[in-house]
Amino acid sequence: MTRETNEVTPRVKDLLRFITCGSVDDGKSTLIGRLLHAAHALPDDQLAALADDSRRFGTQGDDLDFALLVDGLSAEREQGITIDVAYRFFATAKRKFIVADTPGHEQYTRNMVTGASTADLAVILVDARKGLLTQTRRHSHIVSLLGIRDVVLTVNKLDLVGWSREVFEGIEREYREFASHLDFERIVAIPLSALRGDNIRERSAHTPWYAGPTLLDQLETVDAADHGSDGALRMPVQWVCRPDLDFRGYAGRVLGGRVRAGDAVRVLPSGKQTRVARIVGFDGDCAQAQRGESAMLTLEDEVDISRGDVICAADDPAGVADQFETTLIWMDDAPMLPGRPYLVKLGASSVGASFGPPKYAIDVDSFDHLAAKTLELNGIGVVNVSLDRAVPFDAYADNRDMGGFIVVDRYSNRTVGAGLVHFALRRSQNIHWQALDVDKQARVRQNGHKPCVLWFTGLSGSGKSTIANIVERELHARGVRTYLLDGDNVRHGLSKDLGFTDADRVENIRRVGEVAKLMVDAGLVVLTAFISPFRSERALARSMVEDGEFVEVFVDTPLAVVEARDPKGLYRKARRGELKNFTGIDSPYEVPETPELRIDTSTQTPEQATTAIVDALVARGIVRALA
What we know:
Blueprint lengths: L14 E8 L5 H11 L5 H14 L16 H6 L6 E6 L4 E6 L7 H8 L4 E7 L6 H12 L4 E7 L8 H15 L6 E6 L23 H7 L12 E3 L2 E6 L2 E7 L4 E3 L3 E5 L3 E10 L2 E2 L2 E3 L3 E6 L10 E4 L5 E12 L11 E5 L2 E7 L4 E3 L6 E2 L9 E14 L6 H4 E5 L6 E10 L1 H5 L9 H8 L4 E6 L6 H14 L4 E5 H4 L11 H20 L3 E5 L5 H9 L6 E7 L2 H7 L4 H6 L21 E4 L5 H14 L8
Parallel strand pairs: 1-3, 1-4, 4-5, 5-6, 25-27, 25-28, 26-27, 28-29
Antiparallel strand pairs: 2-3, 7-16, 8-9, 9-15, 10-14, 11-12, 11-16, 12-13, 12-15, 17-22, 17-24, 18-19, 18-23, 19-22, 20-21, 20-22, 23-24
């Protein structure tokens, strides 16, 4: 009670975020609609709109179709499935809720990952007629991986099996046995009919044998203590505010712990230490900011801080590394290819990344560890990731926000995966660059010309090797120090262990790119003649050297022409099905979009092409013109 008014200070209701998941047609959207109705969260106008939508799109005759409350997309209503993640807020007298209705279809598992990433509890639905399905197990596995420890197992549509206690208890028993391998702390099983509303808010007369809570009772009473102040301070900087010369503030969302004016902090990755001067709010300074809150900090000292840096507790900072062991959930139709360049977004940082071959993939039904060279759509595996620079991090088990990341395709900008950091690899901490006295510039001066990579790309039989060989001969005659890496020759040694799958092609080009990088550092003009069918890998090779040191030469010969030439008989074998994964036949070739040089072999002889290439090198100042 307050001394001035003698009125009872109202208790601030806590917030529970939960997700509904399961297989297709288990009744997730209907369940959420029933929950909203049971919580009196539907105003009259929305009920009227629902009645109208039920007549137009519903599947329940004259009754309300509660699934339509959250199936907002027209495609969802037409198909009767959930595609996107639908978020709804509602409240009861005891608690506030944000619920995420996530897709059950395997194709949209990536959307389910999105919904689970911020949830505190999972409501997993099982159709009483079907029992546990693969998608039920997959969703449960993902929920566990993402750190959700409370599960409500709702056995839905029990009315369609005669309210059978044996069916309910059989499903509960099977699920608990399956989930014993997962990291759940609590599992509460509830029999219900979302369509009829049984055991949603009121206990159902159809299940006199069930003595547990209703669904709403469980959601209102489950322990959802606020752990916002747990852990050490973590605040990634999202914006540096500099309105004038007298103010510099660092804005971001506190992802762990709390911060007060005067606290000692460390800025990562630089490691600089200082103290918080102020916590600036809209209406003046704030006493503190804690996890989940956005804040703007000013510091006592001038520190070089950029977007993506992390302000941490000085005595308990995050780690900094560029290589990690992770659990990776793959969410794209195209498989994860080891060695291919991707973007990883971790916290406020966006960095280049590549993955190694999976240590193992995880069977979501048996939990067995399976050998795998890649991860396919909805695959889950343990994979090492290498970043192009060191970033601050925490293990996902310690801080979900600082240890979780998404993977983005560099070209399409699609989100293709999500990952959880386990730990930094020891080699990322133990290996450092060794300073050398003789550098690239010293070698360039001695050679008398600039280094570069001449990257010849095109279909098999296009003339890459022929032209590259003549170009090297001409450069050698001019006194230029060169080396030619030819696709067939490299596969006799450096890439002897690789085949011709997409994953093997990516690894082959990664290796060649690394070798070419070393040769450029040696001051050479290195020529590479490889099909190199994927733009991503050619871009990776380009990124390994400095601007102006990569010249992409597209030997543009149509498929019909190279197939007619067929100097090695490979196209004939591919057409007969004797060669799998052959570029141009059953494996794609991605045409360069902006090559530095395009050689049209339908109008140019190899000698004419050589003249054009050497002239281009002279024009770029890489080699000298003949006197």
